[in-house]
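Hi U.,

Before I forget, here's the chain from the pilot set. I'm dumping it here mostly so it's searchable later in email.
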Amino acid sequence: MDKNTIISVLIRLLNEKREGLILLNGEWGVGKTFFLQNEFKQYYSNKTQFYISVLGLNSLQDFKDKVLSVTYLENPPDIEIITELASNVTTAITKEESTGKFTGKIISTFAGAMQHYVLKDLSGVFIIDDLERIPQNLRDEIATFCLQNYQNNKMLDYILVGNFSKQSNEVLNHKEKVISDEVYFSINNLSDILDKKLEKIQENYRDIIKQVIIDFEETNIRIINRVIVKLLPLFEQTTQDRDISDIDIKNLVSSLCAHIILKEKFNYKENEFRENFVSSSLKTISTTPENEHNEISEEENNLLSISAYKNYNNKMAPYCFNAISHKDILPYVFTDNTPPKRNDYAGLLRPELYNISEHDYQEEIIKTILKSNSPDLSTWLIATNNYIRLSKYEYIPHINTLDEDTINQSKLSFSDDEIKSYFHKTVPNINDIPLNMLKHDGDNLYNFFVDKYINITKRERIEELKNKMVNDGWTTIDMDIYHSDFKFKALETLDVNLIISAIQHNWSIYDIQMFSDHLLSVYNFSNLRDYLSNELPHLKKLDEFLNSYLNELSISFRRGAIIELKNTVKKVKESLENSISFINKN
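Structure:
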């Protein structure tokens, strides 16, 4: 049944007197909600339509409150009506209160008889959605409530909406009594939907993309939308520059569909694609959706095979999970038949796909890996990783001058500025993500530089904190230190000598007190030895300084703060010593 037919059927049913309610039944993601909220409204205007999702409701009373809310309180002109109806029981609400402030009070006012009085005078068509997403008992209560209202009020009608197919395994009890007419909603115009969503892509590409998506026989529009959202940026960045082969398009769309269907429909996580593919060889293909532990459905098995052999250098899964951007995967997606210049050979991501001389390629990567042509880190990584891969599988021979020691020597020669420049250029949002997320499984060279970058940023951050500590006082870094990964080695990391100098020359009394409080909060557990043993010599040095420094100070606010700090340092030092000696005795 196409949408035009469904619209005609629904209008006819709403205009007829029926014994029960209308049920619009369909699988998840086929567009039921969008259809009712947007398309159907354009053709049916006999009665006002109200949309209610029951997702998250916990009781029939919640449902009644929601009905009241969407009927009156979300329609500003009707606020006066509902206020007038409630006038005898809303004495707590003053005239000065705005509509927004007393909306909740009005709802709570309509308990018992008053709420019943208001609800019985409702009119319009109520669309009750997501019924399969609530508990069975509540679903049955709501359906029965709607049926009784419909039978008692000629001005009121209901369309129940849900997924009561085999996909959800949910049912509507007493369906034969509650429902008089069931309309099944499914996608039968996928081609038209895809035409609209792919309208920015040139027609010959669009036809190929449509056919590949349709061949997957996926009916969930949400999943299809996610495929297209990931597909469009790749074409927008590429089609302006060159023609794309039909094979490249088919492979790309197939890979995207396989990865996203596995992600959305089979609940795959980013790291499960490869391991599930390996384990699938030990399982029996099942013809039913309900699989045993040692079984796998034919659909999942086919999708896994596609995702394994069309993974685009293992970047498709991270791309589908938003771990990388389209710019990261784009170089691996489409075949470029334009002959590259020789001085660009070392930066080719997949040199074996180009019609170039192996000998010339080897000469170029030797210069790059040995850094005789001053490559940037990006080009060096590409050339070095390609040399390791291509020589391993005998695309090119091993090169004597490129042994492990030589590569390591080149690797260590990149400066901090070169490493920072590389990551800032390749990861634009690098300041907004945890740095460990940058690592790539199996890419040891790249991960080496990730670790280097992490250490560089740590060093720079520590230097920044040291400068703030000295120039602006301890109070400006207190919480930064508490939440840092060197919380348990602050004296060592920040340099106890620098702290001593700051106490003498820079810190205010408040800084000294805050530093004292910080030490007490950090040393506030029993197994100090497991975390703070390395701080002991620095505590001893600080304790010695404070004992000596006190002799220089006369009675004053500052002397009082130093005495408090001295007592704190002594206390935490002794606690740490006791913790260490306890473990040594045992």
